[in-house]
Amino acid sequence: MTTRKRVLVTGASRGIGRAALTRLREDGYQAIGVARTRPADLEDDADFHCCDLDDLAMTQELVTRLANTAPFYGLVNNAAIAHTTSLDDTRPSDMEEALRVNVSASLVCAQALVPGMRELGAGRIVNLSSRAALGKINRTAYSATKAAVIGMSRTWALELAPSAITVNVIAPGPIATEMFHTASPPEDPRTQALMAAVPLQRVGTPEEVAHLIAFLLDERSGFVTGQTLHIDGGLTTSNVRI
User: Fold this and answer.
1) List of the chain residues with pLDDT < 50
2) Residues annotated catalytic, as ranges
3) pTM of the full predicted structure?
4) Which part of the chain is the Ketoreductase domain (predicted)?
């Protein structure tokens, strides 16, 4: 078994997932990325596997195979899909797709990796939610599933605590990712109002979220579990709600 701690990062091809993969490799973890496509500029020696997490059977086969080669210490469930439709336009199929990618894929990954964490005697799970879990216009499916991530994670934290496995949630606000820029065009009045409501008056960076992920994965964070950490420039503490 490798002496470096293995950590699986989903949605690792861009944005927060890519930043997390890079940071964890720099920190000395054996970070393994999963996403639909491998980034063209990814280092040749990077351990990366192509998988569509919307396909739960494919996801289960991959993560089970990876877990069978050696135990994982950490899991970062970052992959997500964000439908930007109003209540009137949201289809049941949108909700089902969001549930598969944003919730069920995380469940499948955790079920495959937790036995190895128990074998190691410790583990870390970091699930990505969103400030949108508190409510956001035109995000019915996204908000619902990101709220589900929080409830699911709190339950896992209780169940896995006896095995010294911590489970925490990161809920980013506006972060400069491709997903954010697509869902919130800068010329949209709602985007402008959102930015005006951020006390720090800027968007966050994927690297800042990756730093928080690294903190929660650290051995010295073993007394932090069942928590939801908002990284949003102070937006959730503002009196303004967008």
Assistant:
1) 1-2, 242
2) 142
3) 0.93
4) 5-173
